[in-house]
Design brief:
Blueprint (H helix, E strand, L loop, with lengths): L1 H13 L19 E5 L1 H4 L9 H11 L8 E4 L5 H11 L7 E5 L2 H5 L4 H18 L7 E4 L15 H21 L3 E3 L2 H4 L18 H20 L1
Parallel strand pairs: 1-2, 1-3, 3-4, 4-5
Length: 230
Amino acid sequence: MRTFRNLIAISILMYCGCEHPSPRSLPVTTGARYLALGDSYTCGESADPADRWPMQLARKLREQQLAIADPEIIATTGWTTDELSAGIDRDNPRGPYALVSLLIGVNNQFRGRSIDEYREQFAALLRRSIALADGKSSHVVVLSIPDWGVTPFAQGRDRTQIGRDIDAFDSVCREESAKQNVSFVDITPMSKHAADDRSLVADDGLHPSAKMYAMWCEAALPAAKAALTR
């Protein structure tokens, strides 16, 4: 029975697409263009679309009197770096964008993919992100990989090793962002608060709640604001 439950849980992380319930308000389509790239953390698995962190970020920026449209999102639950790249190929977004955010890598770690492969593919995604931002690295914001090892989903797994693995992938994420002069926002420490605060985790026991996404939004806000005012 435990094996069966584990298989169901793994499917939640790797294969389920983000749900798309009706948004709470009409989308904002005017203002600076924003492209959000990633996986389940960006498309908001188990969250209302209005609560996705890129959607919250756009609202916060408008509260700061910055005219920005709701984000165009290229992200799917379970995507690795190469799958995100293929998704960009498929959707063929047309820049320039005033802001591009990138959060990717948890599924590389979860599937046991090589960290060297991640470095190569993440660096390529950074180059694509910069190109979509009209060649301006200052208009790209990278978020670190959250630590899913603190969530209820990780029960029975080696939580300490998961944390070490995430830290290793995040080191690559930070290093490659610095090489390409891209803003790096470290949300991993705040993701670990979910170990003691169940309200930071969605009902599926794995993905962030709207409350956690709000924390990421606040962390990313300074870098996003700087990108739009440069």
